[in-house]
Amino acid sequence: MNRAQRKFPVLLLAAGVVAGMFAGGCSSKDVGQETVATVNGDPIKVSELREILGVPGGAFAVPAIPLERKKEALDQLVSVRLLAQEGRTLGIDNTPEFKEILQQNDQLVRIKALLRKEIVAKLKVTDDEIKAEIAKVKEGNQGISDADAAMRAVKSVSGSRIQKIQEDLIAAAKKDTGAALDNQAVARVGKEENLPDNVVLASAGEEKILYGDVRKILSSLSRGGGAHGQPDLAKNPTLVGNILERELTMRALAAYAKKQGVDGSEGYKAMRREMERYVLRGMTADNVAGGSSGVTDKEIEAAYKEHSASLVRDGKKIPLAMIREQIRAALQNEKGKKIIDAYVADLRKKAKITVNDAVLPKV
User: Fold this and answer.
1) Do 254 and 107 meet the contact criterion of CB atoms below 8 Å apart?
2) Residue 21 has pLDDT above 50, yes or no
3) Taken in order 163, 167, 172, 174, is the CA torsion positive or negative?
4) Which of 32, 112, 195, 260 shows the greatest Cβ crowding within 10 Å of its Cβ?
5) Angle, CA 157 vertex, CA 155 and CA 163 arms, to 5°
6) Contacts of 225 (CB under 8 A, 6+ apart)
7) 78: which residues sit within 8 A by CB, 6+ positions away?
8) What is the spatial distance between Cα 68 and Cα 152, in angstroms, rounded to a whole number?
9) Residues 301 and 328 sit within 8 Å (Cβ to Cβ)
10) For 238-292, what is each residue's pLDDT tens digit?
11) Do residues 46 and 363 touch, judged by C-beta distance below 8 A?
12) Alpha carbon distance 36, 32 (integer Å)
């Protein structure tokens, strides 16, 4: 997986696209824009904190979640900002790699901004519904914490409604852009030995999806386009069909978003800033963790011995040889995390961080 695929959180739509923010029935729009904290002058809004607590879009208050959990979530957002700010200080935002990731994600940002606008306008959830769902969650999960029950309830109540809004939005976008497959062209996939890359397989408005586009996507997914002797994924009609459906949905939504005036809107700008922040956080963390030492065989053996009681399959102990590389990766991640945590702790000492305690209860 490359940086462009993993640096910006992607939430799934029904067709494998982005999404995921909702607003509640409470009248808390103004509260959502209040500043709950600042990091070197960069504000963190109530809506952003609510979102990380499980309320996509942040327009829904979650009084059932304890204050301590809200502070923990706020701490995560502070860390993201510190690493993103450090990335700009280091000049990462001026690198070709960073700019390439921004370009690759621009369509994604546009779609997410459109979807947030749509969900905020159409999804309604009441406090009573959340309270009732919390009671159900607790009844079925004895011992669950109040915070976890509340977060699970938010997801449960909103889930099916969000899916319906997403499906309706996709349908509207496809209808508006005339999105459609060229079934005759698609039928040639796998039947012709050398199907030209310029064959149009689908279209949405002025956007055309060529066979060459699909081949590039499948090549990246197979990490090199398939080794010698391996089947050519681009000749598999099922795989090609799946990629086409995803790409057609994405392009229809992006074109529809433009027609809806998303580009240049405050919603688009906010989503763009969020994307830049998370990309910078990820690249900075990678640079910091990249300095960690490798994992030795002795460390792997020690970890294997420590956890041997749980490393059992079908009643037999799993041989070290079978899971050596998994243990190595886990230990390397653990080392990297410790280095990043220490780095962030140092950034905190130098930063000016303010928290508005009076606003926290409104989250």
Assistant:
1) yes
2) no
3) positive
4) 112
5) 80
6) 218, 219, 232, 233
7) 37, 39, 44, 348, 353
8) 17
9) no
10) 899 999 999 999 999 999 999 999 999 999 999 999 999 999 999 999 999 886 6
11) yes
12) 9
